[in-house]
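Example 3.2
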Amino acid sequence: VQMTNFGGTARRGALGFSIGNFGYIGCGFDPIVSYFTDFWEFSTSGIGYEEMNAPLSGLSVYPNPVTEHSTISYNLNTSSIVSIELLDLTGKLISVLVNREKQAAGKQFVTVAGFAGKWIPGIYLLSVTTDKGERSVQKISVAG
């Protein structure tokens, strides 16, 4: 792994967050003044080569926390056989939402009804896998 060498104090931690369509990464914490000394802003509308060619990208769940009806969206670069599973935080399978369904390339939308009524409120992992071995996981919160 290549490390970038910035001048000054060694970078040992990083903070990342997003606001709207922009992402921010901060690192190089200065303990004397208690703030991150380096910040980068990037637009999420710019898609890199690897993401464009990934079999599965752009997984999102909304609303999150999930309510009675929620939508799962993602993009498939090529037609794939897709499975969507709900897991607890230990990785234990809670429910299979989509079981090996063939889906065409493009933006996919899956609506799940009854989220809030079927599972105990809390934090879960939503896992989307393809027959090409690609997997994307999103942390979700089930509202009570």
